[in-house]
Design goal:
Blueprint: E1 20-24, H1 40-45, E2 61-64, H2 92-104, E3 108-113, H3 123-130, E4 142-143, E5 164-167, E6 172-175, H4 190-205, E7 210-213, H5 256-268, E8 274-277, H6 283-289, E9 300-301, H7 313-326, E10 334-336, H8 345-348, H9 354-363, E11 367-371, H10 430-434, H11 440-452, H12 455-459, E12 461-464, E13 472-479, E14 482-489, E15 495-496, E16 506-512, E17 519-521, E18 526-527, E19 532-536
Helix pairs in contact: 4-5, 9-11
The protein binds 1-deoxynojirimycin.
Residues 74, 77, 114, 178, 214-215, 340-341 line the site of 1-deoxynojirimycin (NOJ).
């Protein structure tokens, strides 16, 4: 899979259009070495779960959260070497083998690119902090204290506390948008841009199909370090104004688009590769990160409004409609319903909603990013099960527990002691659910198969039908003559639907959360609580 033309759909769309991407948190997926920590060989050994085998999910790509050497202050999002594999995950040769094994089954592999910051242990930063006149000094953002000795600005870091850390030995503050152990790179320095381009090229040449680009909206800050004003109004994306301030000067600066254009230019040198931006922003802002359709910024960017939405008809409707209305023409929304930073859907929205949440993720128009373990309904660990003190100071251990392959004590994840506890693996495991047609795993498989087998669901347009019933979301996906009606009852009561505007008398069940099948008349159609159906009209 190295030629661009092997990467496109027959329709001419790029391979990633409408793709299903599976997110793997490498530490927690599968441990082949027996040290209790997931690794690359473990991932390779479990590819049959994902693609190319009977009973596989049928996803198009995997995205690996960071696999690079790191002192683990932020579990790999603090990189100490951009061009190697952390020893606990394996070697470069293991990664090469994994890429090859993925490609052999038509599966793409994306890595995580963390361009905003490095670890304090990265040799660039070690040199940078060593003295004010080290050539690497300007690779990071250093500033003098204000006259009264305070930090250069009032900016707050994403994980709490000020964004500035005092470095006594060189007598200046350095900036960090996340943990103090993650100093921000200075993207105004062309040498930084060049170094990151080199790192990207290193992985592209090994066959990596793209990157999920971490925290990009924090890559550039105001160069005059102006104080952020107080938060004016709550953002659609809660937490954006962390510390009660509007991050006007510290996040989402206009110059960030120069950074993205640079990353895109590097990527375009390698045909068929994709960049997926991560930015917790309202979708109207996100559309700029997609270059407003100009093709010189990200191919894709996560729209987190669905993930962050309360499970209420009005909020979900808004998330869907804002996404459709505000993405630039020709672009693809990118949805996730969880990730390694957020509580799992079966925890956040409740286990009753895991099936309808899966339906939303996979039947809406867009790219769907599925976090490993959600397909078996894994839930977050209770606080009393988790290590104290936690591994992750920001409190995200609960959603990072090991993948549950079977019901054994270590859930088939490891022959050793798993680095985080196993949570209720009795029925939430792959082995038990694989052959149970009523399981959540079987539903995920059916949803993905329906999507892969239908031009309307994979690549088609989307048009909502409103006021079908109080708690029902309804939309039609269409491509050519093919029309698929999607219906989701997000409420707790049965709902009788008014489907006159679907312009059809009946529909053939393509996939259902409920076990319904066959041809169903639309008149008087009543959905059970938490029921969702996709009907071929
Ligand atoms: C977003 C990542 O998903 C998160 O895990 C990390 O802590 C921050 N970016 C900082 O890199």
């Amino acid at each position: 899979m190295t030629e661009a033309d092997e990467r496109a759909h027959p329709s001419g769309d790029p391979w990633w259009a409408g793709a299903v991407v599976y997110q793997i948190y490498p530490r927690s997926f599968a441990d082949a070495s027996g040290d209790g920590i997931g690794d690359l060989a473990g991932i390779e050994a479990h590819l049959d779960h994902l693609s190319g085998a009977d009973g596989a999910l049928g996803v198009d790509a995997i995205w690996l959260s960071p696999i690079y050497p790191s002192p683990l202050d932020d579990f790999g999002y603090d990189i100490s070497n951009y061009t190697d594999v952390a020893p606990e995950y394996g070697t470069l040769a293991d990664l090469d083998r994994l890429i090859e094994a993925c490609h052999a089954r038509g599966l793409r592999l994306l890595l995580d690119l963390v361009p905003c910051h490095t670890s304090v242990e990265h040799p660039w930063f070690v040199k940078s902090r060593s003295s004010r006149d080290n050539p690497k000094r300007d690779w990071y953002i250093w500033a003098d204290a204000r006259e009264d000795g305070s930090a250069p600005s009032n900016w707050t870091a994403a994980f709490g506390g000020p964004s500035w850390e005092w470095d006594a030995s060189s007598g200046q503050f350095y900036l960090h948008s996340f943990y103090p152990e993650q100093p921000d790179l200075n993207w105004r320095n062309p040498a930084v841009a060049e170094a990151l381009a080199d790192a990207m090229g290193f992985w592209f040449r090994r066959g990596v199909d793209g990157f999920r680009v971490d925290a990009i909206f924090a890559a550039i800050k105001d160069d005059r370090f102006r104080d952020n004003p107080p938060e004016r109004r709550p953002s659609v994306i809660p937490g954006l104004g962390g510390g009660g301030q509007d991050p006007l000067w510290s996040l989402n600066r206009p110059e960030v688009h120069d950074v993205i254009r640079h990353l895109r230019r590097v990527t375009d040198e390698y045909p068929g590769r994709v960049l997926v931006g991560e930015a917790y922003l309202p979708v109207e802002e996100l559309s700029i990160y997609l270059g407003r359709g100009s093709g010189d910024e990200f191919h894709l960017a996560f729209n987190f409004e669905l993930l962050l939405s309360p499970w209420k008809h009005l909020d979900l409707t808004l998330a869907i409609e804002r996404s459709e209305a505000l993405h630039p023409p020709g672009s693809w929304p990118t949805y996730a319903i969880s990730n390694h930073d957020k509580p799992r859907p079966a925890t956040r929205w409740g286990p009753d909603r895991a099936r309808t949440a899966a339906f939303l993720l996979l039947m809406l128009r867009g790219v769907a990013v599925l976090y490993a373990g959600d397909e078996i309904g894994m839930v977050d660990a209770d606080a009393d099960l988790l290590p104290d003190p936690p591994f992750d100071r920001a409190g995200r251990d609960a959603c990072r527990t090991p993948m549950q392959w079977d019901a054994s004590p270590a859930a088939g994840f490891s022959t050793g002691e798993p680095w985080l506890p196993i949570v209720d693996a009795g029925t939430r495991n792959v082995e038990v659910q694989r052959n149970d047609p009523t399981s959540l795993l079987a539903l995920y498989r059916a949803l993905i198969a329906a999507r892969q087998g239908s031009a309307a669901l994979k690549l088609g347009e989307q048009r909502s039908i409103f006021e079908v019933a109080a708690d029902v979301l309804a939309w039609v996906r269409s491509a050519g003559d093919e029309r698929v009606l999607a219906l989701v009852n997000v409420g707790e009561a049965a709902q009788r639907c008014d489907l006159r505007r679907a312009n059809a008398a009946s529909g053939q069940v393509l996939v259902a959360t409920s076990g319904r099948s066959g041809c169903i008349p639309l008149e008087g159609l009543t959905l059970a609580p938490h029921e969702a159906l996709a009907l071929l009209l």
